[in-house]
Design goal:
CATH topology: Glycerol-3-phosphate (1)-acyltransferase
CATH class: Alpha Beta
Helix content: 40-55%
Number of strands: 8
Radius of gyration: 19 Å
Number of domains: 1
Order of helices and strands: HHEEHEHEHEHEEHEHH
CATH architecture: 3-Layer(aba) Sandwich
Largest sheet: 8 strands, mixed
Distance between the termini: 54 Å
């Protein structure tokens, strides 16, 4: 069964590689706008088929249409590369990924072709360029998917969000859509500390071996909760505003009560509520 899935996966990948390459060629030759919107829609179709192939069942709470027609920043907690497949199947998005992925054989070239924004979290002087690249995509009406923890975890806790990337939606006044991912069952067994690593991928886990084992699963169930969009016009476009926006996003993903923005800063309201 694994070999059948690998064959199907390769077939899908070849087809969509050609489709994305063609989309780029047509956009370049005819100088058509909206290149990345078309690419993100192709990627969504690819992710949907990949999700079916991997037998990932999604239980959805909230409205996928919350993104609207303008570019929005989708943010979520992060436990595995599977998160990207799940969310990529629900939303037409361009991904933000760690720089190391760019160097992976085949995967790196594929993600670059699909418009992935690569971030080097070790070199802070590169951050402004990444923020501007995210902002540029948002201005073009493209939705961008960001995992603000900066790395995947074992799911026992959500790491504090890195606030720097939130400068992009503040700069463009794009909406932020917080999403909570919860894997609920693996092969019809509840997810526990004993079986979670069959789906979760974090720390120094090796990718190919993990993905091969993932192909052997009969099914995976995941709950996706789409929270109400955050209006960034209510936050200051400065370092404090970035911190407040990232904290508001963090709180919603954890299911904490939302703290209303005052329009200038959330800091004083946070102190009043404590």
């Amino acid at each position: 069964m694994r070999l059948v899935k690998v064959g199907a996966l390769l077939g899908l990948w070849v087809f969509f590689f050609a489709a994305v390459a063609l989309a780029h060629a047509v956009a370049s030759v005819f100088r058509l706008p909206g290149r990345w919107r078309r690419v993100s829609r192709l990627m969504q179709r690819f992710a949907r088929l990949l999700r079916v192939l991997l037998r990932i069942r999604v239980s959805l709470e909230g409205e996928v249409g919350a993104l609207g027609d303008e570019g929005a920043l989708v943010t979520a907690n992060h436990v595995s590369y599977v998160d990207g497949i799940v969310l990529g199947s629900l939303f037409p998005v361009i991904f933000v990924s760690k720089k190391e992925v760019r160097g992976w054989p085949v995967v790196g070239q594929w993600t670059a072709l699909c418009g992935t924004i690569f971030i080097d979290r070790q070199k802070k002087d590169k951050t402004p360029a990444v923020v501007e690249e995210i902002a540029a995509k948002l201005r073009q009406g493209v939705h961008v998917l960001l995992f603000p923890e900066g790395t995947s975890t074992n799911g026992e806790a959500v790491l504090p969000f890195q606030s720097a990337p939130f400068a992009a939606p503040l700069r463009t006044r794009a909406a932020v859509i917080p999403v909570t991912l919860t894997y609920t069952a693996i092969d019809r067994e509840p997810v526990t500390g004993a079986n979670r690593d069959r789906v979760y991928w974090y720390a120094d886990m090796e990718f190919l071996g993990h993905f091969w084992r993932l192909l052997g699963l009969r099914n995976v169930e995941v709950s996706v909760r789409i929270h109400p969009r955050i209006d960034t016009s209510r936050y200051r476009n400065d370092s404090q505003g970035r911190k407040d926006l990232s904290q508001a996003c963090y709180d919603r993903i954890l299911g904490r009560p939302a703290i209303p923005a005052r329009g200038t800063t959330l800091g004083s309201l946070r102190s009043l509520s404590s």
